[in-house]
Every structure is written in structure tokens, then in C-alpha cells.
């Protein structure tokens, strides 16, 4: 099969690799759409020791089961594989499973390829009316759905439900959509890139700011740099909640004194539970997350150029979706 392989810092090769082998109850999935994630970009730049070269990246995918009893079923892929028997899994917090694995990290190759194998339990059937390139957005949308759900649960029930999202990439836009789907109608996104601001405002109908000021009961940091954490801790209202999703850099930025004196809650959020993933998929299928028409589509064979364009700020759309069979 053909795959896009991470060979080293800022180096990707599109070439033939061995077909994956289906084992046990796993399904073989013909990948039809796979998105480029910020974590893929971190690996591409050499910033993620968990993803050593050579490796097939990519974990935001949808496709069609090839062979077996469910042959031909259209599915979106939950890439987080868990044990199912530890305390975290039994509590429905599969994302905290100590033995969790995610495709695009060893030992599991990713979905920038024509085929991938996955446990049947990680596959959510997709209705015929939903295009697979939109179904592949379940993964990044679930990340934000999970963060928003936790933030709302931590907010005092009498607090104003108004939100600021820092960062207008796919996770930031998804957080805004998740807030609206979960009942928060006043949402602003702060995004420094003028081209992306214009796209979010004109194509997605979002309220977008170049800089934010004032205070917000709910803040999502979808970037995760020291500067964005500083913004989050400065703009969170007294008694407010910061949900931290981005993994841009490891430390710095938080105003711990202000957060302590103003009782601002800080929640680190990682991926999603299996239920969050299913809930997000259902929200895609029934239209609660909008038309999802904000992706740019390219063939997987042009993946290296897509990464370079993202690296150099030449893409206005929040997401590039790659098609392995184009």
C-alpha cells in the first residue's frame, strides 16, 4: 500500500510500505480521509519524542471496513485503544488508561496510509448521508467536545455562560462549535493570523478577535504556549474555568497568584472518553456541529507539500484533509 512516512525533521516520504495485517477481532479499514493534526505537525518539526522516525503519522480518519462480517461498513475511527479492564476504563475514563495506545505512536502506525487495522470497538458506523471527510473530523471535534464538557461541569451553575477560545485552528474552532452545541451561545475566538481570522469570520460565521480583553467565565486554550496560558489566566473571570487543550510548549505563562486569589479552576484535558467520541460523532451526523465545510482537501500524495504549507502559514482553513486513494 501507499503511505506518507515521517522520515525525520521536516521530511516526509510518500512510498510503498507493507500492508497491515489484521489480527484477532481487528478490522481492516480502507482509509478514505485523514486529517493533519497539530500533534502531527509537532512530530514533523521534531518536537515529539513519542513519535520517532520512521513512522506513519495521522490519527483523524474515516474509511470503509474491508473484509470480515462488517465488510463495506462506513466508519469513523476512534484512534485511542484502551485495555478495557483497568480502574480508569471501568470508570468510563478510557483516555486515562495507563496502557492506552494511539495510532501514530509506536507500536501502532498511523492513518496516513491506504489501510489501517483497528479493534472493532474503536469503529463508529457512519450514516450514508454523511461524507467520510466530515466523519473523519470526529476525532479533533471530540477533543474539544471533551474539554468543553469538563469546563462546563466545573463552572458554578449561577455563573454567566460566556466563553473565549484562544486559537483559531481546528481544535479552537471545534471548541467554539462544541460550546454552541452544549448550550453556550456567546463564544469568541482570538486568533492572531489575519488570513485565518477572515476565514473563520466569513466562512464559519464565528466571532473572531485579533486580541482579547475583558474577562470570560470560560476560557479554552487550544494552543498551549506560555503566551496563551498567560492570556488565559489574565482573562479568566473570578470563579471562572480554564480548560487547557493545546500542547505547544511544556511550561510557563500561568499567573498562579491571580488564579489562586480569584479561585480560577484550571483543567488539563487530554483526548476524550469513548462516550465523548460517540457523542461527537452523533452531533456530526445530526448536524448540531454545523456544516463542517471548513476543510481543505488534498490527495495523500501531496501530503509533504501540505505540511510545508501549514508550517509556513500558507493555509487559511483550520484543517487539511488528505485522501489516500486520490
Automatic annotation (TrEMBL):
Cofactor(s) of this protein: Zn(2+)
Pfam families named in the record: ADH_N (PF08240), ADH_zinc_N (PF00107)
A cellular-component GO term for this protein: cytoplasm
Any one biological process term the GO annotation gives: butanediol biosynthetic process
Domain Alcohol dehydrogenase-like C-terminal: 170-283
UniProt domain Alcohol dehydrogenase-like N-terminal: residue ranges: 25-128
Keywords recorded for this protein, A-Z: Metal-binding, Oxidoreductase, Zinc
GO molecular function: (R,R)-butanediol dehydrogenase activity; metal ion binding
Family in the record: Belongs to the zinc-containing alcohol dehydrogenase family.
PANTHER family linked: (R,R)-BUTANEDIOL DEHYDROGENASE-RELATED (PTHR43161:SF23), SORBITOL DEHYDROGENASE (PTHR43161)
Protein name per Swiss-Prot or TrEMBL: Alcohol dehydrogenase catalytic domain-containing protein
Lineage: Bacteria, Pseudomonadati, Pseudomonadota, Alphaproteobacteria, Rhodobacterales
Amino acid at each position: 500500500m501507499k503511505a506518507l512516512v515521517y522520515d525525520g525533521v521536516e521530511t516526509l516520504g510518500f512510498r510503498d510500505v507493507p500492508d497491515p495485517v489484521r489480527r484477532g477481532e481487528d478490522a481492516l479499514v480502507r482509509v478514505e480521509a485523514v486529517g493533519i493534526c497539530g500533534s502531527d505537525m509537532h512530530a514533523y518539526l521534531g518536537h515529539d519524542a513519542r513519535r520517532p522516525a520512521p513512522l506513519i503519522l495521522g490519527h483523524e480518519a474515516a474509511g470503509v471496513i474491508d473484509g470480515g462480517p462488517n465488510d463495506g461498513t462506513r466508519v469513523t475511527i476512534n484512534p485511542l485503544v484502551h485495555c478495557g479492564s483497568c480502574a480508569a476504563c471501568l470508570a468510563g475514563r478510557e483516555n486515562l488508561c495507563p496502557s492506552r495506545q494511539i495510532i501514530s505512536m509506536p507500536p501502532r502506525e498511523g492513518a496516513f496510509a491506504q489501510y489501517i487495522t483497528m479493534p472493532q470497538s474503536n469503529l463508529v458506523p457512519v450514516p450514508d448521508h454523511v461524507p467520510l471527510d466530515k466523519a473523519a473530523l470526529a476525532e479533533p471535534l471530540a477533543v474539544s467536545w471533551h474539554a468543553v464538557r469538563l469546563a462546563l461541569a466545573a463552572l458554578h451553575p449561577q455563573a454567566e455562560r460566556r466563553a473565549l477560545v484562544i486559537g483559531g485552528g481546528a481544535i479552537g474552532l471545534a471548541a467554539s462549535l462544541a460550546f454552541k452545541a452544549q448550550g453556550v451561545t456567546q463564544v469568541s475566538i482570538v486568533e492572531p493570523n489575519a488570513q485565518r481570522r477572515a476565514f473563520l469570520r466569513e466562512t464559519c460565521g464565528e466571532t473572531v478577535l485579533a486580541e482579547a480583553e475583558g474577562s470570560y467565565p470560560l476560557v479554552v486554550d487550544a494552543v498551549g504556549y506560555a503566551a496563551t496560558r498567560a492570556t488565559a489566566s489574565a482573562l479568566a473571570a473570578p470563579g471562572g474555568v480554564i480548560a487547557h487543550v493545546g500542547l505547544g510548549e511544556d511550561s510557563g505563562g500561568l499567573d498562579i497568584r491571580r488564579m489562586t486569589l480569584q479561585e480560577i479552576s484550571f483543567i488539563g484535558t487530554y483526548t476524550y472518553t469513548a462516550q465523548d467520541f460517540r457523542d461527537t460523532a452523533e452531533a456530526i451526523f445530526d448536524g448540531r456541529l454545523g456544516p463542517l465545510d471548513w476543510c481543505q482537501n488534498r490527495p495523500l500524495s501531496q501530503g509533504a507539500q501540505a505540511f510545508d504549507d501549514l508550517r509556513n502559514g500558507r493555509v487559511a482553513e483550520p484543517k487539511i484533509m488528505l485522501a489516500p486513494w486520490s
